[in-house]
Amino acid sequence: MLQPNQPTNPSRSEPAARGKLHPLVEWQFDRSWFDELQTRLNRNGPWDNWQLYQLAVEAEQAKQVTSFDELRCLRCLPQLEPMPHQLATASKVLHEMGGRAILADEVGLGKTIEAGLVLKEYIVRGLVKRALILVPASLVLQWVRELNQKFGISAVAQKKEHTWQYDIVVASMDTAKREPHREKLLAQDYDMLIIDEAHKLKNKKTTNYQFVNQMSKKYCLLLTATPVQNDLDELYNLITLLKPGQLGGQSEFAANFVVDKRLPKNEGQLQEALSGVMIRNRRGDGGIHFTKRIVRNIPLVLSPEEKALYDGVTAFVKERVVETIADMASMLSLVTLQREVCSSRDAVFVTLVNLFKKTAEDSPLRAKIWGLVENIRAITSNTKAEKAMELIREIDDKVIIFTEYRATQEYLLNYFRDNGLYAVPYRGGMNRGKKDWMMDLFRGRAQVLIATEAGGEGINLQFCHHMINFDLPWNPMRVEQRIGRVHRLGQQHDVRIYNLCTLGTIEEHIVSLLHEKINLFELVIGELDHILERFEKQELSIEQQIARLVAEAGDSSELQRRMSGLGDSLNRIRAEVQSDTELEEEDALGSLLDAVGQTIPMEASQ
Amino acid sequence: MNERQVHRYVQRFLDATDCTILEKSPAHFKVKLSPAADRALTNRPYYWSFVDRTGAEPETMSMLLVTDRTKFDAAEAAAEAQKQAKQQQQQEPKQNPAEPLSSAAEAALARSFGFVHGDLNTIRMPREEVHFGSRRLDQLFDASQAGGSYVYLFQEPERKHLLPYDSMPYTAWLGVNMKVEFASDRKREELYSFGVSLASGQCVERFHDRLLELKMTPKLPPNVHITKNGLSLSKALSTIEQTLERKLKNQDYSWAAQARERLDEELARIRSYYEPLIAAAIVENQPAITEQYERRQAEIRWQYEPRVTATAINCGIFHLAGID
Q1: pTM of this prediction exceeds 0.80
Q2: A 354-413 near B (Cβ less than 8 A)
């Protein structure tokens, strides 16, 4: 009965009207809605809800993109506070570069944030629906998390064949370029392609380069901190991937801009051409660019029972080292015992029991090991835990405690609970859901987070600025990773680091090496990588070298002498690295890059 | 949209979809979803296909929707502090004997999580932050769109039953809300709302605003008759198209001229790269390079070509009082 009172035309109209609004502008008027309306009229329904109809209009009004050039995505991201240079970069890519650019900021200035802003803006404006993000395998999950959490972009990590169907996929370059994936991706048109660590595309002959060159993409971002390392051709290749012809043909480029592989000419012109496709932000020369790190070593004296255990274990280790002679693996595991005693009796207990089980029943070692276990029984309190407790009470704010050992973690959780302190655990073995839950609890009600893992799956804890190293890893990189969890862009406060250090043990030597000798805690971010890279080029990893020192040193004073030697050689390398970087900065290539972009006057905190 | 607008939007959405609000404040809702809302929001297609096939009684999800995070957290913290103060008072006289169950639960949790403090094990009602740009709100937007695309409505008469045998004349209108996108490598949008009287053919702009002032109902009210349509729907459609086109033609298209300029520049740039490359290449390689050249050209057109598209947000037939 509610049929409209005229016969509807059964023949379908054109799906869309087309025409020209202006000599330059194509115009399209969608008619599919009209066909659907007619169908429903003919079938007498179904009809939708009037309230939802109004809400749908309001939603469109709220989402409407009113102008060509504001950054609309910021309204959608109330939690994100990008730094001014990140906003400026995103804006330039969107409004001046047509969405194709090389983001070449120095490490640590937030290229990911810039790329996320650009991607989000295009998504909000409806200009990007399908995007592909190619990154090294180790960074896939981190990208997925950042895009989801920071930018509310539903990105998916590529795992299975069918994952490619999702709109926004993060995948490793190595997977993507291999069959059968390659063929699939080449058959797609991507609204946006983002490539992290894009310096891996600098060689034209590699499959990486050819694959990306063949892909069909509208907008494209290449992220790299080192757009050119050895040869101007690398830069040429990257740019040609993005905008062929920006620097002319290969031979023109060579004739116009290259004297030698590391020496450009006509710099002014070259810089201008570069600035059309590349943005490079650098740190100012303010020295410290982040908030400060304030390090305090807290010396502790072991209780007589604890000291007895430590001495017992040390003697046991020394004996065994002599017997096994220079088998690196067993040496490491022996020295581990010594490190564990410094952490907690629980940590060493687990290892001793395992060792006991592994030892043959008739071995004289068994009795010795059992003797040590007896020593453990005599210990009733943990000096370090008590001190930590006292510290936490004093700090009266969120604190993250790092320990190397699972058993210590468990012990501390129990100990804190018994003393009425909320603490939550965090460790590598937890799945993502548990980790996120623990993070939520820590952000909310728990005052303390006790973590055994710092690296890998980046936990970001900028809301916390107190950190206790219950024990220290021997690998400086891992110490740096721990600190990096809290001391990163976005941290508003100075970060306070407390190192618990038991006197008269190897721990004392380690703390003095890392803190006093190489001043690990105050190195510029990124510097440690270079130092270790060179140091470990020589022979063993630093961790192994320390273990060997500890195992082989006769007594405490010898150990101290040799540790100090190790510190000196690290310092030498540090000096080398620093002078090299200075050289690099004077280098013609460096100054060429520097001219393409701005220096960020980072606030040096007082 | 600020927090208040979002809050109001959520409230109206929950009302429109018949959800049961369990608890609310100006900063949050605790809500048990209706089956329709659950289907739209919880992303459980397998569950719903199970319910549909077996006819089982559906169990819908509950959610905590936080529309103002700062206020909500502050309120929560205050409530928590109060609760703790109370507990301490209660605990002082005697120990609580209801321990065994919670310690069993704690043990179970401890097995999978290591230790978790007892006070933290409550059943979690998934907490959703709803702010402009959040995924949940986008989902509400999408669900509104999906459930509010095509309507067939009547104006509710203002005076009821004045004369029982009198009949009020109503006119049918074709109404449509449109989004017009002006795009090149950048984009902006305008929204339009048109209504065309199917009796007279007159076209009204800002039609949606006019509807918002009226009360609408899906049922034909009593004592109402619909005026005979003098116009086919297709004619009404072309009226709308022509009106919109006329309006759009008078716009400023300097943005398009600039986009075209960028497009031409880009095309010239890659021409300067590929043409010499193709000329210099050996014959076998030429097709591959030509193909690559063509792809780059297509990409650039895709990226920069200025275009205007109009799509409908939603539409319907509206029967309004009067003969217009």
Answers
A1: no
A2: 409-410, 413
